[in-house]
Amino acid sequence: MTTIAPDARMAGVARTYPPRAAVVSWIFFDWAAQPYFTLITTFVFAPYFATAIAPNPAAGQSLWGFAMAAAGLAIALLSPVLGAIADASGRRKPWIAGFGTVLVLASCTLWIGKPGDHAVIPLVLTAVALASVGAEFATLFNNAMMPTLVPPARIGRLSGTGWATGYIGGIVSLIIVLGLLAANPETGRTLLGVTPLFGLDPLTRQGDRAAGPLTALWFIIFVTPMFLFTPDYPAKRPLGEALREGLSELKQSIKSLPRQKSLAAFLLANMIYTDGLVSLFAFGGIYAAGTFGWHTIQIGTFGIMLAIAGALGAWFGGKLDDRLGPKRVIAGSLLVLLLSVAAILLVDKDSVLFVKTAPPQAGAALFSSTAERAYLVLGCLIGAAGGPLQAASRTLLIHLAPKDRIAQYFGLFALTGKVTSFIGPLLIGLVTALTASQKAGMAVLVVFFVAGLGLLMRVRD
Fold first, then answer.
1. How many CB atoms lie within 10 A of CB 381?
2. Phi then psi for 203, rounded to 5 degrees?
3. DSSP 3-state assignment of 348?
4. What are phi and psi of 3, to 5 degrees?
5. Bridge-partner residues for 402, per DSSP?
6. CA pair distance 39, 45, nearest whole angstrom
7. pLDDT of 317 above 60
8. In what side-by-side order are the strands of the sheet with 355-356?
9. pLDDT tens-digit profile of 342-358?
10. Burial class of residue 186 (count of CB atoms within 10 Å of its CB; 0-12, 13-18, 19+)
């Protein structure tokens, strides 16, 4: 397997990049990891947990928020340390393999979440938190491989293509679950009108629970090309020595941040707006389930539409990134998110922007009410903005960070993306619990996007 000498990327000489197969294999990591975010944390398992396992939707949203907050805190504390160690040791793939294993095992555990079984709630939430840790850390080390794959002028397109590919993977996995596995408990039929494959029982919601094992199998299959064809950094030094050197360099990097004003402002902005975005995606399906009474099929269909919008947004955003620069792409995405969230708060099951409308009717066609259609449009805008926001953010970091410490700064990037990531879910959980209102809980997200956009204006790309 080919490796890339780190001195080649820092020397002032022309360098070569790996073949197209290596780049395509790297892109497929996003495809491999996306079902965790699409199936488990957003459109299938999270709403199922809130409406079927938890005592009621408000309690489910609150409990889910606390679990995601705990995972976010663990990721925040460990990300920069692991990134620094990886830079010092050289290798990326062993870390991806280790945390990918955590993702696989924890995702499989979600199968035990039977409807109405309150006894399994602690174990299910623990598994969700561990899967989140595995997915985020594997992604961190995968991101750190980007500068070795393509020239700097093509980083934006690579990042956008990766995000778009991930969204498409999410769409395909969601279609599999909704069309072939998860059935309506009342009709026993899936979205495609067939009985679930493998004899999955609609009454015990086995199709919804299968999202966990499917996520694990999907990751194993589609991450394999990256391990086979994408070159890794060469090993530099043993783990013990790398630990000491990595922690020393991390300490120096943190001390130097006040002198790197643009980088510090970006990391702070990323900390805030990523918290808002992750919280929005994590609770969007739960919010729709509580507001409109949607079940897995409606939420999953909604998710497919959002993922399509996200794929198109990320792909187009990657082109804009290379042409206009990542900062402008991030700013435009934040404006769209801010306006969309504000509008969603003015949509209820029987009103849109203060105008009374007919509520959804039992047995009516999918998304037949005006309020539901308005929610779909706003959701697609959020999906279209979320993809380029995340893709351009990792591009901007590559523009700003020292090239010889890229994994370490991706660790700081993950730190700022996670150090307060427990605050968003925690605030949503607390406000929802105190007010017994999902709308009040979601309203806190407006503050995150406003603050993130304000800090971004201080960044010079």
1. 20
2. -70, -35
3. strand
4. -120, 165
5. none
6. 6
7. yes
8. 347-348, 351-352, 355-356
9. 888 888 777 777 677 76
10. exposed
For 402-432, b/e burial (b = at least 16 CB within 10 A) is eeebbbbbbbbbbbbbbbbbbbbbbbbbebb
| Identity of the amino acid at 363 | G
Q: Is the pLDDT of residue 268 over 70?
A: yes
By the 8 A CB rule, do 442 and 290 touch? no
**Whole-number average pLDDT of the chain:** 81
Tens of pLDDT, residue by residue over 157-185, are: 888 888 888 888 988 998 899 889 888 77
Query: What count of residues does the chain have?
Result: 461
- One-letter amino acid of 10: M
Residue 391 has what pLDDT?
Answer: 83
Tell me, what DSSP letter sits at residue 5?
Answer: -
DSSP string covering 370-433: HHHHHHHHHHHHHHHHHHHHHHHHHHHHHHHS-GGGHHHHHHHHHHHHHTTTTHHHHHHHHHHH
The pair phi, psi for residue 443, each rounded to 5°, is -65, -25
Other beta carbons within 10 angstroms of residue 351's beta carbon come to: 15
333 vs 315, more confident: 333
Contacts of 384 (CB under 8 A, 6+ apart): 309, 310, 312, 313, 336
Half-sphere exposure of 275 (CA within 13 A, CB side): 35
| pLDDT range class, residue 445, cuts 50, 70, 90 | confident
For 304-323, give the DSSP string.
HHHHHHHHHHHHHHHHHHHH
Give how far the C-alpha of residue 190 lies from the chain's centroid of Cα atoms, to the nearest Å.
26
Q: Nearest Cα to 330, choosing from 424, 447, 461?
A: 461
Is 80 exceeded by the pLDDT of residue 437? no
Residue 249 contacts residue 84 (beta carbons within 8 Å) = yes
Residues whose CB is less than 8 angstroms from the CB of residue 433 and which lie 6 or more positions away in sequence, other chains included = 58, 59, 62
Residue 364: exposure state from Cβ atoms within 10 A (0-12, 13-18, ≥19): exposed
Max Cα-Cα span within the chain:
68
Q: Is the dihedral of CA 325, 272, 376, 307 positive or negative?
A: positive
SS (H, E, C) 119-133: HHHHHHHHHHHHHHH
Taking the C-alpha atoms of residue 394 and residue 163, their distance in angstroms, rounded to an integer, is 11
Q: Is the pTM of this model over 0.70?
A: yes
